[in-house]
Amino acid sequence: MEWLHRNSRRHRPPIPHVSRDIPLVVADVRAEADDVVSLRLVAPDGAPLPAWHPGAHLDVLLPSGRLRQYSLCGDPGDHRSYRIAVRRIADGGGGSREIHDEIRTGGRITARGPRNAFPFVTAPRYLFVAGGIGITPILPMARLAAARGADWRLVHTGRTPESLPFSDELRALDPDRVWIRPDTEYGIPTSGADLLEQAPEDAVVYCCGPIPMITAVRLALPGARASALHWERFSAPPVVDGRPFTVELARTGRVLRVPADRSALEVIADQVPGTAYSCRQGFCGTCRVRVLSGQVDHRDRVLTDAERGEHMTICVSRASGHLVVDL
Ligand code: FES
């Protein structure tokens, strides 16, 4: 996930790290759409859970040890349960398959957070644009916008009606403000201009979904009547301004070449199965490694200056020349 204001790419705020572990019990598993389930999570003793705001996510530690981020998509006013939703990614890193195939009602997981990398600002007008499972952070935002009496519109795109979760909940907010847009009915792909066409004058746009959709919206923004764009993606960002470098894995002496358009994490994970990662966007810290020598170009949002003296996140940070890491 990544949050950006369109004017602030180089000045992103650091995301406060919330490292408390919260043991949770799966109170309910529900099929929400094709290949999408939601989990309702509660404290084992039913105690109140830490508060959250729309846009927040949980770091979920799965029984296998995998750590994954999932946006909270329930009601922030419900202090006794969290809801997350997960699309099964057949060829992903295994986290979604584990949830779909192995997590059942009564199962236990550990969560950290909630943390908010996609904060929801107060505004009089909004356009919400979601692609597929990208509806998860957007749903609580739309609910809050509706509760506050804001002027808002929402577009939810996806392959088929059956692939789109929470359509009934969205329509229940206000069917006149919600456009459920499956490709099977409207054709593919919709353009960024078409999506932004839905925006009320001077609206703040919140966009979450696949990279092509976000890119289309970003490119169309200058000609639109929207005033600002906040967006979040659920995959690794493309490398920007990358230069090739080499990384040496000190424990084996293996030297790997990281090309300009790939991350060190991708290259290392190809060679070292089980390399730890989670967000792949520089905000969770899971991929952090100790740097033994080399000049690091830090691009994360999680390490403090002091931590950067010895560590780097290999999912986004890069290096010039030769780097030696404790792997
Ligand atoms: S995987 Fe999250 S910071 Fe690298």
Task: Write a structural description.
The protein is α/β, with parallel strands linked by helices. Among the domains are: about 5-10 and about 120-235, Rossmann fold; about 245-325, Ubiquitin-like (UB roll) (Roll). The protein has helices at about 95-100, 135-145, 165-175, 185, 190-195, 210-220, 265-270, 305-310; strands at about 5, 20-35, 35-40, 55-60, 65-70, 80-85, 110-115, 125-130, 150-160, 180, 205-210, 230-235, 245-250, 255-260, 290-295, 310-315, 320-325. Bound molecules: FE2/S2 (inorganic) cluster. FE2/S2 (inorganic) cluster binds next to loops.
Secondary structure layout plus pairing:
Layout: E1 4-5, E2 21-33, E3 36-42, E4 56-61, E5 67-71, E6 82-87, H1 95-102, E7 108-116, E8 125-131, H2 135-147, E9 151-158, H3 167-173, E10 178-182, H4 183-186, H5 192-196, E11 204-209, H6 211-220, E12 228-233, E13 245-249, E14 254-258, H7 264-271, E15 288-297, H8 305-308, E16 311-313, E17 318-325
Parallel strand pairs: 8-9, 8-11, 9-10, 11-12, 13-17
Antiparallel strand pairs: 1-12, 2-3, 2-7, 3-6, 4-5, 4-7, 13-14, 15-16, 15-17
FE2/S2 (inorganic) cluster is lined by residues 277-280, 282-287, 300, 302, 313, 315.
What percent of residues are in strands?
A: 25-35%
User: What is the H-and-E element order?
Assistant: EEEEEEHEEHEHEHHEHEEEHEHEE
User: What number is the mean pLDDT?
Assistant: 89
Give the CA-CA distance, first to last residue. 26 Å
CATH class division of the domain at 4-9 and 118-233? Alpha Beta
Q: Give me the CATH architecture of the domain at 4-9 and 118-233, please.
A: 3-Layer(aba) Sandwich
Proportion of helical residues: 10-25%
Q: How many helices does DSSP assign?
A: 8
Overall geometry: globular
Please name the CATH topology of the domain at 4-9 and 118-233: Rossmann fold
Largest sheet: 6 strands, mixed
Report the C-alpha radius of gyration, rounded. 20 Å
Protein name: PDR/VanB family oxidoreductase
Cofactor: FAD
Pfam family, one: NAD_binding_1
Domain FAD-binding FR-type: 19-121
